[in-house]
Write a structure and sequence with these properties.
About 40% of the residues are buried. Strand 2 and strand 3 form a beta hairpin. The chain has 11 helices and 9 strands. It is α/β, with parallel strands linked by helices and about 250 residues long. The protein has a single domain, classed as Phosphatidylinositol (PI) phosphodiesterase (TIM Barrel, Alpha-Beta Barrel), CATH 3.20.20.190.
Length: about 250
């Protein structure tokens, strides 16, 4: 069933690209609408009809991929412990979902956009291989997008799977699309939205890259990006962006 949904999704996304409509990306599932990075919020985002769900992953102490933004559980789960110092069973009892559970919930009904996190200044050893294996197991290597601020992660993933779509996240101006594509093998540039100028979008398109701007919660900024030809807009308010763009039949 998932394969059928993914084929249909690919057809839809081709149509959206031809129309010039950006992808609606629900940031952490649409963080303004519920508990971020939760299975319940992912289901809500699907009911809204978003094009993609963005989520964050860390690695547990025993090597499992789990869905969480911060290295600490304190802000989101009220537990003053680090994800990299807890095993899978402990994280499950705390209410932290696994990436596999998120994949099962989304079930090919929209694009899976995975942000790889690291417990700075350290790195998760082997997280790229584990993610690649999980995407392969779930037949998502062609449809998923993996993004990160960590350029080593992007290089390792490109080496593991050159056709995997990846994106370079950054929050400073002056990034060259041509250099980013050459150095990291990415498909997307993912700038903080204030740096997603028309000039950058045009340069990226000329280099064969797409732009996914984050995190856009201001409606005038959303409208400006839509008019500028941005390929994907990541927002905590996917409902507002959906309303702005109007309905589309799936």
């Amino acid at each position: 069933m998932r394969k059928i949904l993914l084929v249909g999704l690919a057809v839809l996304l081709t149509a959206l690209a031809a129309w010039g409509r950006p992808l609606v990306v629900a940031h952490r599932g649409g963080a303004a609408l519920g508990k971020e990075n939760s299975l319940r919020l992912f289901q809500k985002a699907l009911e809204l009809g978003v094009d993609a769900i963005e989520l964050d992953i860390h690695q547990s102490a025993d090597g499992h991929l789990v869905v969480l933004h911060d290295v600490s559980l304190k802000r989101t789960h009220g537990l003053d412990r680090r994800v990299d110092q807890m095993n899978l069973a402990e994280l499950g009892r705390a209410g932290v979902p696994t990436l596999q559970e998120a994949i099962d919930t989304i079930d090919g009904r929209c694009i899976l956009l995975v942000e790889v996190k690291h417990p700075a200044p350290a790195r998760y050893q082997g997280i790229e291989k584990r993610l690649h294996a999980l995407l392969k197991k779930n037949d998502l290597l062609k449809s998923a997008v993996v993004i990160s601020f960590d350029t080593t992660t992007l290089k390792l993933l490109h080496k593991l799977e050159p056709t995997l779509k990846t994106g370079y996240l950054y929050a400073t101006p002056g990034v060259s699309p041509v250099q980013a594509k050459a150095r990291f093998g990415v498909t997307y540039l993912c700038p903080y939205y204030r740096f997603a100028s028309i000039e950058l979008i045009d340069q990226a398109h000329a280099a064969g890259l797409k732009i996914n701007a984050w995190t856009v919660n201001d409606e005038p900024a959303m409208e400006k990006l839509v008019q500028s030809g941005c390929d994907a807009v990541t927002t905590d308010h996917p409902d507002l962006l959906q309303k702005m763009l109007g309905p589309i039949s799936r």
